[in-house]
Protein: Bifunctional NAD(P)H-hydrate repair enzyme
Amino acid sequence: MIRPEFVLTPLEMKQADAATIAAGTPGIDLMSRAGRAVADVAERVTARGGRILVVAGPGNNGGDGFVAAWLLAERGYGVSLGLLGNRDRLTGDAAKASRHWTGDIGAAEDLPFHEADLIIDALFGTGLTRNLEGAARLAVERMNMSGQPILAVDLPSGIDGETGSVWGVAVRAARTVTFAARKPCHLLMPGRAHCGPVEVADIGISPETLAATGADLWANQPALWLGALPRPGLASHKYNRGHTLVASGGATRTGAARLAARAALRIGSGLVTVASPPEALGVNAAHLTAVMLRGCDGPEGLHTVLKDERFNALVLGPALGVHANTRAMVAVAVQARRSLVLDADALTSFEGLASELHQAFRHSPTVLTPHSGEFNRLFSGHSDILDPPSKIERVRRAAFYTGAVVVLKGADTVIASPDGRAAINENGTPYLATAGSGDTLSGVIAGLMAQGVHAFEAASAGVWIHAAAGSSFGPGLIAEDLADLLPGTLRELLK
Ligand SMILES: NC(=O)C1=CN([C@@H]2O[C@H](COP(=O)(O)OP(=O)(O)OC[C@H]3O[C@@H](n4cnc5c(N)ncnc54)[C@H](OP(=O)(O)O)[C@@H]3O)[C@@H](O)[C@H]2O)[C@H](O)CC1
Ligand SMILES: [K+]
Structure:
């Protein structure tokens, strides 16, 4: 079985490094393997004898660069090396690595970047903690301006390893080689856009050592949740594949609920019902076939409908309206302890009232699916949730606070569970940024929960499947297409 891919923070990577060193592998061996991995990639992408410039920084990232430089010189490339700062200021493994380099050492910012066939960026890795200024900034700007391909060592210099944000300016790499595991910056925006394709080199740090750091962040890939996906057996019938209820908005706001409902049906919920206000029954009836319809007037109506225990998953929010009634419907749903997906208006209705959601969902499986605008509105005034520089930390804190799994949507959707687990999604497409796409996602997640999938797995799988379906269509995608792309995506996944 394929293991889910851990994503390690710089701190966890340091712990894994230290544990490997404590278990008997000298640090210089790790650095030598890292530098060799960089040299191997450089060799693969540069014709023999080509001109390679190595830009080395004052820490261990620079140390990796020194190793790569002398290996590539040995392999017949024309290598020049520039260092930020003074050679005699190098310490530890980086100082050891630099002793192998017998060529000249120029200033990092003064290398003839335009003449390079390849630039190796070994200026800063995970140790960068402040804005780039002076010579460091100049070196990065000149690398970028050269127009020549840049191979980043560990991560593009100027990117923060933990958050993926830019420290003033950052290298735009053509490719990146990282070590042992990807870091958050390789998946989170804007870092991801600076990396190019990322290769992970094995430098002898075991998967067990990585896991022992207590890392609980993963790349959102099928290995994380495939085993939890429902596969109907011979004995399945529609009544044991769950029944999803989707609340509709008023007469002129019904489409969003139907998008969610169709997606829930396509993802395998045995039955799906749209709960419609009386004045919208006609318009809903005119557009529904396999999805069922039921009258449901506000919170009291929902309370009555939910007396039927068979409705085991519920979507509230799409086009439901921003008002107290929506908040009351959420309260009814929470009381009824059903699996719940809250999106759009169900979140915005709590703007400035997030304290009403404090630990509200700890007793029933709930997924909140805000985009960044909804997230910021919902938690306005909660600086403990909104202020951390790491998106992963913000989403985790929202999940701790509410007791729900939180999906913060975007190009780098993050999914976090109140138990601390988190995943970063990376198979999205900009074409998913279209009206109704989020409604479809809430239906997919609810439909999975209706079939008994736990909230974190349902949210993670839902996000990935929704994105894969959208990516399979590409240009011209509209939300109506998404539900009907789900069967193809599921067929691939489950074969
Ligand atoms: N298992 C692994 O992943 C391995 C990774 N290796 C490589 O090591 C680096 C991390 O090395 P580290 O020494 O911790 O950090 P850096 O090289 O990224 O940078 C630290 C040095 O940079 C100076 N610094 C920091 N910010 C700035 C700035 N804005 N301007 C100028 N200088 C800056 C910092 O100086 P201080 O004054 O802050 O102390 C340091 O001198 C990792 O990314 C991998 O490439 C190892 O090879 C082993 C295996
Ligand atoms: K780098």
Observations:
- Residues 61, 121-125, 152-155, 157 surround potassium ion (ligand 2) (CB under 6 Å).
- Residues 222-494 form a domain with the UDP-N-acetylmuramoyl-L-alanine:D-glutamate ligase fold (CATH 3.40.1190.20).
